Amino acid sequence: MTSSVLVLKVGGRLLQQSEALSALLQVCQRIQQQRPLLLVHGGGEQIEHWLQQFQFSSTKVDGQRVTPAAHIPVIAGALAGDLNSQLVAVAQQAGLNAVGLTLAAGASIRCQIDHSRGCVGIPEAADKHLLETLLAQGFTPIMASLAQAADGQRLNVNADLAAAAVARLVDGDLVLLTDVDGILDKQGRLIDTINSQQAQQLIADGTVVGGMRVKLDAALSAAQHSRRSIAVAGWQHASNLLRLANGEQSGTRIQF
Ligand SMILES: Nc1ncnc2c1ncn2[C@@H]1O[C@H](COP(=O)(O)OP(=O)(O)O)[C@@H](O)[C@H]1O
Ligand SMILES: CC(=O)N[C@@H](CCC(=O)OP(=O)(O)O)C(=O)O
């Protein structure tokens, strides 16, 4: 049994699949009996939908959303309001003592502003006191990928980068769950392991693009920093997560 924290990132598409979500959170509840668990979530598709409802058009550059200040109330409503409270509710139904937070809670994560994209944060580990306190008391923090700058400006943060910063903060193992089985090669076959050189090649030759490119960057920097491998795996089969939590292989392992 390991006592290191498991940091699990889930994206917006999982939150639209109620059966898969509740199956996954039941597995989370079993894992939480063995080791501290923390969730970080995104919600890219829901943000897209909410922005359209408010007649805003939105673009991404290299997998990350360009975020004018006028979009922030809508994004905060989607991420920290609707999705976070939904995830907390499902987690509590599964028996977890879940606490909904943003990255800004307890000044856990601080951000530089990515001025090229507007109100977007580049997250860094900052203060672990709040998360360590919650984890030590058996709570399961569930963090929405919304942060703030030093001047209090709220910032939209890519959830994979957010999860990597949180994993660094709590010195945890990082699992990035997504809607595909892992990172696929040009023929659509699952790649078992990727090292730093292979990652650069997969990005340079256009095999890994968009959201998966951000995920691979996040995983690589987390692996290099923690000197541990990082998993990118699918959420479709909740048993995958149990295997990963037990140190077994599932999906793609990003090596340092
Ligand atoms: N080489 C690749 N292997 C797998 N998925 C890829 C690859 N390149 C791009 N993608 C895309 O990345 C998506 C996952 O990233 P993203 O949409 O950001 O998901 P999430 O919401 O889980 O973070 C996949 O659904 C797929 O369309
Ligand atoms: C800056 C940036 O790109 N922020 C993301 C935050 C949500 C996210 O990352 O959601 P998924 O995990 O579902 O992709 C966005 O606005 O889509």
Automatic annotation (TrEMBL):
<dbReference type="InterPro" id="IPR001048">
    <property type="entry name" value="Asp/Glu/Uridylate_kinase"/>
</dbReference>
<comment type="function">
    <text>Catalyzes the ATP-dependent phosphorylation of N-acetyl-L-glutamate.</text>
</comment>
<keyword id="KW-0808">Transferase</keyword>
<feature type="site" description="Transition state stabilizer">
    <location>
        <position position="9"/>
    </location>
</feature>
<keyword id="KW-0055">Arginine biosynthesis</keyword>
<dbReference type="InterPro" id="IPR037528">
    <property type="entry name" value="ArgB"/>
</dbReference>
<feature type="binding site">
    <location>
        <position position="156"/>
    </location>
    <ligand>
        <name>substrate</name>
    </ligand>
</feature>
<feature type="domain" description="Aspartate/glutamate/uridylate kinase">
    <location>
        <begin position="5"/>
        <end position="232"/>
    </location>
</feature>
<keyword id="KW-0028">Amino-acid biosynthesis</keyword>
<dbReference type="Pfam" id="PF00696">
    <property type="entry name" value="AA_kinase"/>
</dbReference>
<dbReference type="InterPro" id="IPR004662">
    <property type="entry name" value="AcgluKinase_fam"/>
</dbReference>
<dbReference type="GO" id="GO:0003991">
    <property type="term" value="F:acetylglutamate kinase activity"/>
</dbReference>
<keyword id="KW-0418">Kinase</keyword>
<dbReference type="GO" id="GO:0042450">
    <property type="term" value="P:L-arginine biosynthetic process via ornithine"/>
</dbReference>
<keyword id="KW-0963">Cytoplasm</keyword>
<keyword id="KW-0547">Nucleotide-binding</keyword>
<dbReference type="GO" id="GO:0005737">
    <property type="term" value="C:cytoplasm"/>
</dbReference>
<dbReference type="GO" id="GO:0005524">
    <property type="term" value="F:ATP binding"/>
</dbReference>
<comment type="similarity">
    <text>Belongs to the acetylglutamate kinase family. ArgB subfamily.</text>
</comment>
<feature type="site" description="Transition state stabilizer">
    <location>
        <position position="215"/>
    </location>
</feature>
<feature type="binding site">
    <location>
        <position position="65"/>
    </location>
    <ligand>
        <name>substrate</name>
    </ligand>
</feature>
<comment type="pathway">
    <text>Amino-acid biosynthesis; L-arginine biosynthesis; N(2)-acetyl-L-ornithine from L-glutamate: step 2/4.</text>
</comment>
<protein>
    <recommendedName>
        <fullName>Acetylglutamate kinase</fullName>
        <ecNumber>2.7.2.8</ecNumber>
    </recommendedName>
</protein>
<keyword id="KW-0067">ATP-binding</keyword>
<feature type="binding site">
    <location>
        <begin position="43"/>
        <end position="44"/>
    </location>
    <ligand>
        <name>substrate</name>
    </ligand>
</feature>
<dbReference type="InterPro" id="IPR036393">
    <property type="entry name" value="AceGlu_kinase-like_sf"/>
</dbReference>
